[in-house]
Amino acid sequence: MPCAAPCNWVPCSRRCDNLLDCGHQCPSLCGEACPETKYCQLCGDDSVKSAVVDWIMGSLYHEINLDEDPCVFPDCGHFLTMSNMDGLMDLKSQYDMSDEDIATPKALSNCSLPFSMDEVKTCPSCRGPLRNIARYGRIIRRASLDEATKKFMAWSHVEYMRLAEQLVNVQISLTKADKPPALPNATKSSKLVIAKGRYQQLRLLHEWVGNARYNEALKLWNRISTFIREVRKEEQPLQRVANLVRHASGQAQVTNDFAVDESVLQVKGELKALALSLKCEIVILTDLMTIRERLSAGRPKLKLDLTKQIQDCEKLIEMAESAQYPREQVEGHICLAQFCAFIRALTPESTEDSTPEEESSDVIAKLMEQAKAHIATARDLLNQYPSTQILEAEIATAETMLRDSVFYTEVSESEMRAVYQAMSRELSGTGHWYYCVNGHPFTIGECGMPMEQARCPECDAVVGGRNHRAEEGVRRADEMEDLGRGMGQLGI
Questions:
Q1: How far is CA 146 from CA 19, 61, 129, in A?
Q2: 421-426, long-range: CB < 8 A, 24+ apart
Q3: Buried b / exposed e across 120-134, counting CB within 10 Å, b at 16+?
Q4: E strand or H helix at 46, and its extent?
Q5: Cα-trace Rg, the chain
Q6: Does 388 or 418 have the greater pLDDT score?
């Protein structure tokens, strides 16, 4: 197996046959690195011989029969009997154990499931790492992989909030910025040729307006684009290890028993990043619409292709619907309607000399029909899911764009910040965390135990419970609590 994946072999429980430098038999296990000579049971000093190695029976090192119960020697210098360390490491959670007095692993019990370990196991005496102990590789790597996933979730949340804050600042600065000066009529090409690629198009738009007006917006769009690549499913720790295992399996190097539940992969990070990218472009285009008319006289004719933006809106809607995240689904519908409004405003009116390709009346009619359908769907979701109510003002803004061709935001600065805070609320609660039947996290305050029924703020599934018993399908999200505590310590 790749070294990052949980091990798929059954560890040996026999005493090592090798000899230490002193000539006596190694006190450790077969398959483990032999300890230094100072840990020899026969010729070690009194401090080693008198070490307590069986915490249950209180037995000292020199009293142990190493042939029956060898010892485990981590790098930190502390050591315990195999049976004690196996119990502390909860070896039975990953292996089927024998029925002997000293139980030993005999077979893998199941696929190593995500978040099946509460914590990364460490030395019970000093909390030093146990990564050098091959016997516990399955447990340690499973827990390490879970820990990496939690850190990925924490990082993506912090990065999203940082970028969202920057987007609000960019939007406010554009609203308050002086309008760029109009240029005198000049002899220029009658059509602006737009390069392929969204960034190139944004750069040409930036140059068309001039005055470095969109410098910060373009820098932010690039940072968001990088963020999208970093939070994709393929970049997440679980998926990357699964890909390594799949590759090794394809090379006939291993038997693949490492499974990744798609529901565990953090798709919401990608959804939020994609929505943020679309909103950044909407901020730029909204500002353009407010200054375009006064700048048009001295500049070439402006023509934009927003096809890729429409496709990304559809992708956002589809992904959010599949993962049952209605807030991001509503955002996708709103963004798509707004891009339809931009396309309508930028589509030239038909003239007597227009060719069939340039006819705009049919295009505009179809755009309006499409946009109204998306707004209606957003309204339906708003009525169905309470968590989407925070987007009411954004829907109203999109409706104004479509109805009146008025391009300005009716959402205040405080409302914009509240929207982004709401989109990441699940990582900043108190009480105990749980998952609903669809995998969405929620929190229960006070004692942290369910005492009444409620609805999931994301998908409206039944959550909570009665008499400290959770509803069927609701499960504890210990990793979210750990994550929340960690973020609290960071001051987030």
A1: 38, 35, 16
A2: 421/161, 422/327, 422/387, 422/390, 423/160, 423/164, 423/272, 423/327, 423/328, 424/157, 424/160, 424/161, 424/272, 426/480
A3: bbbbbeeeebbbebb
A4: helix 46-49
A5: 31
A6: 388
Query: pLDDT digit string (tens) for 243-291?
Result: 555 555 555 555 545 454 554 556 788 899 999 999 999 999 999 988 8
* Residue 84 CA to its chain's centroid (Å): 37
Q: What is the DSSP string of 147-214?
A: HHHHHHHHHHHHHHHHHHHHHHHHHHHHHHSPPPPPPPP----SSPPPPSSHHHHHHHHHHHH-TTTT
Q: Are 79 and 39 in contact (CB under 8 A)?
A: yes
Structure tokens at 290: 């407010």
Cβ burial of 460 (10 Å; 0-12, 13-18, 19+) is middle
Nearest to 82 by CA among 73, 278, 142: 73
pTM, entire model:
0.69
Question: Residue 470 forms beta bridges with which residues?
Answer: 465
Matching residue, tokens 């305050």:
445
